[in-house]
Amino acid sequence: MNGSQIIFYLISAFILGTAVLAVTTSKIFRSAIWLLFSLVGVAALYFWMQVEFVAAVQIIVYVGGVVVLIIFSIFLTQQSGSEMPKPSLKRLLFAVLAVLFGFAFTYNIIAQYGFTPAVVKPFTVPVTAIGEQMLDTKQYGFVLPFEVVSMLLLAAMIGCIVIAMRWAPKGKPVQKPPYPGMNGKSANIPAISKETMEEKIP
Amino acid sequence: MSSIPLTHILFVSTALFFIGMYGLFTRRNLITMLMSIELILNSVNINFVAFNKYLYPDKLNGVFFSLFIITIAAAEAAVAIAIIINLYRSHRSIDVEETQEMKY
């Protein structure tokens, strides 16, 4: 076992361990931080596979964008130190069973397939090749998906603004919602808050 | 480098996918479900890059697929968080059990 293999197994153990922690921690903020570590581990796996450009995009978009967005939304909607309720035992049991069965089934197929690797050839991904093929208009060029995905990003941006904008009712100033620190448990919400909500939203 | 067989990388990505599935099954909070979806998308990306590296090392299509998936995942996360914030404003909760009516 040489160094490259050891590094691969370390990265894999890191990814899987932090991912398991991210889906089982009961504090939501810690869950987001474990997700961040898992995504960094995936970027390290891309570095190990020598696709540096995808690794850089992974770090920039996921670690710099998505996780920060998730943490912001946690701060906007939850108290970060609060515990999430544990799932019921029945649901936990069936989820574990379904996941184990699915994993065994899928990995059985993968292990039996017998991939034949291509003739051993250095897999180098120069960024110039990616850029040229990305904007190529000839065959095997990716300029059409590139443009479509740019339109999709524009539409998503405008859609996010429209969805998350607070529409003020006409003639009334926007008032702060009641109970700003409420933690997502509707059992604790008094009935008066629902009435004020219904008044506010026509 | 080539001494790691492809199935080991596929083991990692399959395990990551099913960890994400587990989170999606057990969590009842919309933000944590979104995190599980991110894990699932990452496992798909690992698959694309690994297949490209091991089976077709002279092409770049897997790299492009993973780049587009990353882009669309970012857009999806942004839209999902906008919806979650809007939902929190109208229901004061982001628990999926408590958001049963689709009207606002």
CATH architecture of chain B: Orthogonal Bundle
According to DSSP, the number of beta strands of chain B is 0
CATH architecture of the largest domain in chain A, by name, is Up-down Bundle
Main interface: chain pair and counts:
A-B, 90 and 77 residues
* H/I helix tally of chain A: 7
Strand content of chain B: under 5%
Task: Determine the mean pLDDT of chain B.
Answer: 87
The share of residues in helices of chain B is over 70%
Briefly note the structural class of the backbone of chain A.
Answer: mainly alpha
CATH class type of chain B: Mainly Alpha
**Class derived from helix and strand content of chain B:** mainly alpha
Rounded radius of gyration of chain B (Å): 17 Å
> At the fourth CATH level, what is the homologous superfamily of the largest domain in chain A?
NADH-ubiquinone/plastoquinone oxidoreductase chain 6, subunit NuoJ
**Quaternary structure type:** heterodimer
Query: Number of helical runs of chain B?
Result: 3
Helix residue percentage of chain A: 55-70%
Main location (chain A): membrane
Region (Disordered) (chain A): 183-202
GO molecular function (chain A): NADH dehydrogenase (ubiquinone) activity; quinone binding
Protein name (chain A): NADH-quinone oxidoreductase subunit J
